Amino acid sequence: MEHLEYKGYKGSVEYSEEDKYFFGSVQGLSKDAILYEGNTLEELEQDFKDGIDDYIAVCRAHQPI
């Protein structure tokens, strides 16, 4: 798996051999950072999706009506 995609966002997939876990970050964000991690690829993907959903919710909450 080279990258993750969800709701139009793309994220990296990295593995730390030393720490024995997966991690990554959403690419293409200029002002914000969304980081995610997991012990398995399934955990990594879920943390990625949760991070995107949280980011979208925060952005919507801060939009002027």
Describe this structure in words.
With 65 residues, the protein is α+β, with helices and mostly antiparallel strands. The protein has one domain (3-61): Double Stranded RNA Binding Domain (2-Layer Sandwich). The protein is built from 1 helix and 5 strands; from the N terminus they run βββββα. Strands 1, 2, 3, 4 and 5 form a 5-stranded antiparallel beta sheet that branches. The N and C termini lie far apart (40 Å).
Order of helices and strands: EEEEEH
Helix content: 25-40%
**Which ranges are low-confidence, i.e. pLDDT below 50, for 5 or more consecutive residues?**
none
| Number of DSSP E strands | 5
Major β-sheet profile = 5 strands, antiparallel
Radius of gyration: 13 Å
Helices and strands, with pairings:
Elements: E1 3-6, E2 9-12, E3 14-16, E4 21-27, E5 35-38, H1 41-61
Antiparallel strand pairs: 1-2, 2-4, 3-4, 4-5
List keywords for this structure.
Double Stranded RNA Binding Domain; 65 residues; 1 helix; elongated; alpha+beta
Summarize it.
The protein has 65 residues and is an alpha+beta fold.
